[in-house]
Amino acid sequence: MNFYTTSILALVCFYVLIVLVLFFFQGNLLYHPSVNNYIKDQTAKEPTGIEKVRITTKDKIDLIGWFYSNNMENSKTILFFHGNAGSLENRTYKLNHFKNLNLNFLIIAWRGFNGNSGKPNELGLYEDAKSAIGWLKEKGIKEKNIILYGESLGTGVAIEVAQNKNYAGVILESPFTSMVNMGKKYYPFFPVSLLLKDKFESYKKINKVFVPILIMHGKVDNIVPFHMGKKMYELANKPKYSYFSEYDDHMMEYNETLLNELKKFIHSLN
């Protein structure tokens, strides 16, 4: 066996090894419960006035949640689905604004996050979301008064559970088209569509969301490309609204402009 043949075989073996690593450890690449990428919020604690709750899923996993009740009868309720990294505390700076918008809110930590048992996966996250919706309904909150808010990975969950339902509205912050397309961006030389288990194919589902939708995305997002958010907006049904910021990265700035867009959208739902 000559040097050329040996080199080719070595490269093939190395490639196969990387493919196997990607396949068996893809969960560690997609979900990052212990990563804090919210630099501005390093010292944040939970918002004041919340009720710490536990929501049990059908597969017997207890999820930590924070519930804030402003006005159960006359206010909309945001159900917040967070992204693939960090903790509930990392979202405090957003949740505090919801309180000022005359809203109730519930945020849950996914399985495997914030000390919850279980391992995160696509079907598991869908079950977590459905359990949170069921919990709100048990509180007497009607589906038509719930606003689903998805952040990054959470947008895939929001779109899944919003299909053919009568929620008040849907807010998507930094949405992606599918996890396969995201995988191709980061691993262009590997057969992502064959390897990936959790596909989150949002672009195939958004046309089944028939309630008002607001899509927010920063044009300099260095994690989820802006063109994905724009594509999701194009695919969405009317009534649809957009807030495409010129300077926001993946973690959008909750500045006055963004908050005004949220206010306008929420008021349009009344």
What does the model show?
- It is a single chain.
- The chain is α/β, with parallel strands linked by helices.
- It has one domain: Rossmann fold (3-Layer(aba) Sandwich).
- It contains nine helices and eight strands.
- Helix 4 packs across helix 5.
- The longest helix is centred in the first third of the chain and has 22 residues.
- The radius of gyration is 20 Å and the shape is globular.
Computed over alpha carbons, the radius of gyration is 20 Å
Quaternary class: single chain
Number of contiguous helices:
9
Biggest beta sheet summary:
8 strands, mixed
Q: CATH superfamily, called what?
A: Alpha/Beta hydrolase fold, catalytic domain
Low-confidence stretches: none
Q: Roughly how many Å apart are the termini? A: 75 Å
The chain-level structural class is: alpha/beta
Q: What is the helix fraction of residues, given as a range? A: 25-40%
Counted up, domains total 1
SS strand fraction: 15-25%
- Strand order, largest beta sheet: 1-2-4-3-5-6-7-8
Mean pLDDT: 91
**Do you know the CATH topology?**
Rossmann fold
The outline comes out as: globular
Strand segment count:
8
Q: Do you know the CATH architecture?
A: 3-Layer(aba) Sandwich
Descriptive key words:
single chain; 270 residues; alpha/beta; Rossmann fold; 8-stranded mixed β-sheet; 9 helices; 17% strand
Structure, briefly:
The chain is α/β, with parallel strands linked by helices. Helices cover 36% and strands 17% of the residues.
